[in-house]
Design brief:
Elements lengths: L9 H7 L44 H26 L7 H9 L4 H31 L3 H14 L7 H18 L1 H4 L10
Helix pairs in contact: 2-4, 2-6, 4-5, 5-6
Length: 194
């Protein structure tokens, strides 16, 4: 025989009933039957899955020297360009000025346009020098290769004057320092260990 179940009051009957599962809140996943969550339900995203990065190695002394040589070449280039932008027509001979007059061009208005172009170009070239120098100091191999290409192109300007010769020498010396044996290992890519 079974024992009779005592009658329940409406309040007791409500407490014994299971409530339907609540809708998952934004950023939380609902529980599937038989599925155990790997994290507490309060977290909406999984933890950080990337391996820890090794601390950045300090640049070798020759790479730092290369950085300063390349950066100084860029600074000298910008300063030289600003100096030439002050009087862009100083390089023209009287014959050149006569040819401009014969073509109907005003040398003064052309000089101001030329000054603006020189300043913009100098800032662009200076920022390229700075970008290459800073990336070389960080050990980026693409910067070393790009700097090599720029140094090779700059060799075409060897006969343009003593300041340009100084700039080319500084840039080429900085790039050559990056290829010397102990420092060249600084530019090899590091493989991540998982």
């Amino acid at each position: 025989m079974s024992t009779p179940v005592p009658p329940q009051s409406p309040d007791e009957h409500h407490e014994n009933q299971q409530e339907p599962p609540a809708e998952p809140r934004y950023g939380q996943y609902g529980q599937q039957p038989g599925y155990q969550s790997s994290q507490p339900s309060g977290y909406s995203y999984p933890g950080h899955a990337w391996p820890p990065q090794p601390p950045a190695a300090a640049a070798p002394s020759r790479v730092n020297l290369a950085f300063w040589l390349i950066l100084s070449a860029g600074i000298i280039t910008v300063l030289n360009a600003f100096a030439s932008a002050m009087n862009p027509l100083a390089q023209l001979t009287p014959e050149d000025l006569a040819q401009l007059d014969a073509l109907g061009m005003d040398a003064r208005s052309m000089g101001s346009a030329l000054s603006g172009s020189i300043v913009v170009l100098a800032l662009l070239i200076g920022s390229l020098y700075a970008l290459i120098a800073f990336m070389i100091r960080k050990g980026k191999n693409w910067a070393r290769i790009t700097g090599t290409v720029f140094a090779a192109i700059s060799l075409f300007g060897l006969g343009t004057g003593p300041i340009q010769l100084l700039v080319i020498g500084l840039g080429v010396a900085g790039i050559v320092l990056c290829y010397l044996k102990p420092e060249s290992y600084y530019f090899t890519p590091q493989r991540l260990v998982y």
